[in-house]
Design a protein that fits this description.
about 160 residues, globular
């Protein structure tokens, strides 16, 4: 499935989930569907819900993290890496999410790698030890990434310099 195609009513579903909190659970459950198109639509809708009402996805953080870690569908991973990278995780869950972001850095597409870098920077904001690990990653993207990667790295570098 090509990006941007086959998303069906993802925008309408996301808008409905923003109004109906119970629907977010249905989107999370859909991440486990056998049909790729359903997983992609659910992940995309969750990303949109999180952007509008982050508190709606918070109760499902662990389930979303576990679904994201097992997701093999590239277009869904794009959305799930963004969702997980913006969740305020702690402890073991944060460790798993950080591991997932480092895995995204080795991903097959530049967008996935860029989103992984963004997620790592997000998780490093209150974590000096992680910031020390993430800074060289951002510097590498700045030096050797695609133009889009370099642009994002320029924006993120000040956040990991401290």
């Amino acid at each position: 499935m090509a990006p941007g195609r086959g998303l069906g009513a993802a925008n309408a579903v996301a808008a409905e989930a923003v109004r109906s909190p119970g629907m977010v659970g249905e989107l999370v459950a859909a991440l486990g569907d056998e049909r790729e198109v359903v997983v992609v639509r659910a992940a995309n809708a969750l990303k949109k819900v999180q952007a509008a009402k982050p508190e709606r996805v918070m109760p499902f953080a662990k389930k979303i993290l576990r679904a994201a870690m097992g997701c093999e569908v590239l277009f869904a991973r794009w959305s799930l890496v963004q969702v997980v990278g913006a969740l305020p995780l702690r402890g073991r869950d944060k460790g798993l999410a950080v591991e997932m972001m480092f895995e995204a850095l080795r991903g097959e597409g530049g967008l996935l790698r860029t989103l992984g870098m963004q997620g790592l920077v997000n998780f490093s904001r209150d974590d000096a030890a992680l910031r020390r690990r993430v800074r060289p990653v951002v510097e590498e993207f700045l030096a050797n990434g695609t133009p889009a990667m370099r642009a994002r790295a320029r924006m993120l570098l000040p956040l990991v310099r401290g």
